[in-house]
Amino acid sequence: MKKNYSYIGISFIILIFGIWAIPKIVDHYSEPDLAVIGTVPDFSFTDQNGKTISNSDYKGKVYVAEFFFTTCPSICPIMNQNMVKVQNEFYGNPNLGIASFSIDPDYDTPEILRDYANSYQITNPNWHLLTGEKVKIFDLANSGFNLYVGENSEVEGGFEHSGYFALIDQEGKIRSRYDEHGNPIIYYDGLETEGIQMLIEDIERLIEN
Predict the structure, then answer these.
(1) Does the structure show a pLDDT above 80 at 182?
(2) Which domain, by its residues, includes 149?
(3) What's residue 143's pLDDT?
(4) In terms of domains, do 26 and 45 share one?
(5) Does the keyword Disulfide bond apply (predicted)?
(6) Tens digit of pLDDT for each residue in 124-171?
(7) Are strands 52-54 and 44-46 parallel, antiparallel or unpaired?
(8) Which parts are annotated binding residues?
(9) Distance separating alpha carbons of residues 66 and 61, to the nearest angstrom
């Protein structure tokens, strides 16, 4: 019986290509690149331990940024309870940092921030609760991150701000995943379980790169 060797050869090539290509296709659709939203501008503030912290302290680390204040009566407690979950998910990993910028620096001194850190069981040495000149912190939020903060005597607590977290890579670039329509989500919802899970997954992806 005469064998069709050319057919067998072609089939073998298709099989080999398929084995090589399938993981590539799966990876392409399940692990798309994270969007680059922008670059965090230079900053320098004082943390809960009285230490000056700047961009250079986060270089080479993946970190999460938020804007909050310690006397916030509404969303801040939820945000920081969720941020502690992120901290604990990466317990002992030196490649994760967190930057919590106080929008009420007149009240939130390093001593106040240290007590706040203790009350929330903040243990990651790379989680810095930062205070400094209000004008500079507001400018960093509104112009640097495009995360609105402001003063408003008519709202509870006297300040307005969002509940979003920003994800920053090792080079200081703000990153995010894409939604189902191919648009970057830009920031992660710090108030919702789904947003926190997405954030944890994307931190892992950046750290592994």
Answers:
(1) yes
(2) 35-208
(3) 97
(4) no
(5) yes
(6) 999 999 999 999 999 999 999 999 999 999 888 999 999 999 999 999
(7) antiparallel
(8) 72, 76, 161
(9) 16
Q: Which residues contact 123 (CB under 8 A, 6 or more apart)?
A: 87, 91
CA-nearest of 45, 33, 34, 32 to 144 is 45
Same domain, 14 and 66: no
- Asked whether the beta carbons of 167 and 33 are under 8 A apart, the reply is no
Listed range (2-6, 48-52, 61-65, 174-178) with the worst mean pLDDT: 2-6
One domain for residues 109 and 7: no
On whether the CB atoms of residues 202 and 176 are closer than 8 A, the answer is: yes
Handedness of CA 55, 206, 139, 134 (dihedral sign): negative
Q: Which residues, including other chains, have CB under 8 Å from residue 138's CB and lie 6 or more apart?
A: 103, 149, 150
Which pLDDT band, with edges at 50, 70 and 90, does 32 fall under? Answer: low
How many domains does one find in the chain?
Answer: 2
Q: What's the pLDDT score for residue 4?
A: 52
DSSP-assigned letter for residue 179: -
Cβ atoms within 10 Å, residue 48: 25
Q: Are residues 9 and 84 in the same domain?
A: no
pLDDT for the residue 113: 98
3-state secondary structure 21-36: HHHHHHHHHHCCCCEE
Taking residues 42-67, what's their average pLDDT? 98
Could you list the residues known to form a binding site for Cu cation, using ranges.
72, 76, 161
Q: List the structure tokens of 116.
A: 């706040």
Task: Name the token pair of 149.
Answer: 């903060």
Note whether 139 and 89 are same-domain residues.
Answer: yes
